[in-house]
Amino acid sequence: MSSTRRGPVAVPAPAIPRDAVVAGTMTRMRWTVVGLLFAATTINYMDRQVIGILKPVLQHDLGWNDLDYGHIVFFFQLAYAVGYAGAGRLVDLIGVRWGLFGAVLVWSMAAMSHGLVRTVEGFAAVRMLLGLGEGGGFPSAIKAVGEWFPRRDRAFATGVFNSGSNIGALITPLLVPFLTLRYGWRPAFVVTGAFGLLWLLAWLVSYRPLPANPRVSAAERAYILSDGPSALPAARESWLRLLRHRATWAFVVGTFLTSPVWWFYLFWVPDFLHRSHGLNISQMGLPLVTIYLMTDMGSISGGWLSSALIRRGLSPLAARKVAFGVCALCVVPICLAPLVHGLWPATLLIGLAAAAHQGFSANLYTMVSDTNPPDAVASVVGLGGMAGAIGGMGVAEAAGVILQATGSYVSLFSCAAGAYLLALLLMHLILPRMPQRLG
Hints:
The chain is an all-alpha fold. The chain has a single domain, classed as Growth Hormone, Chain: A (Up-down Bundle), CATH 1.20.1250.20. Helices cover 75% and strands 0% of the residues.
């Protein structure tokens, strides 16, 4: 980009009405793409959550303590931060097809490698490789949604594919105990990791970029492009230039404050259920399934809410903020989870908060494609994801230290309760209105 150009300028081209798309057969390839992204996200979360389900077993068999486990999670988050930022940049350069292929290949091989190690150092090493690969998942998926859907549909499409994270988190506590009790914990890592290799075959056969995809009809192509061009063609923005824009910082701050809470749910809630309610690996299935069924509904509902508000006349940014507010308020009661008596009140409080997180997240990721040109979307998502992983590193270490010292989850759940309201406040201060210059 030349030194005199400050960024791609939004073109005030009028949107094409939905009833004005080209006549003819309306194919549904965009939803096939969402289905593939959903499957990849499901596998992604299965691979990362296995260790959380197996934490009590691994601690018993390998002699870990809470600090050891915290260190292992820390190194995953460190690599995830690097992978998220690097993969976001790479995907903007080489495109979604090969960017996501490479990410899934790396994380699948890393997931299977967990079955070959025994030491804390060995687990830290394979978790780092897993983090590097999984860092490419969401930048690729968000970029794909931005390329395949008009703005009014993006939050819903994001909510649909993002619900795969909840399906993965739902399947894992059912599948992993079954495999572990019959074959041991090593095959549990190998089997779940192998699913990604099967996905790679389906991806290569099915996915082509929109401009070169022969399965997309003229009517569907016109619908996808019905917003009109969002920006003039331009050289890709550098990270330094991206960090000069308010939209980038709004996303970075939002992910830094809220993503660590989600990591906390994934990696520590099984231990909370074991420590506070005496559940063993064979008893965790139903509570965890309940939590992630609720989370699945939250992901889709959060995306639907802002999309419905846009159809009713709100601007995209205003609709996202309304959805942020609803979700943030639903998280607050989680501070009571370690204080209530009984397994199911605690389970439902965690499920409500986790569902609200996913609704918040679906809108947060969609905000990136609302406020940035297509060639910058994955890079901005990568920067935000790196910030969230850095926050997660702090939570991993803090959780290990607090639990080793006190054995109590009260302070950890209390911090989670206020994180989303703080994130919404800061994002609104940073980005009070839609930027006039995208990117």
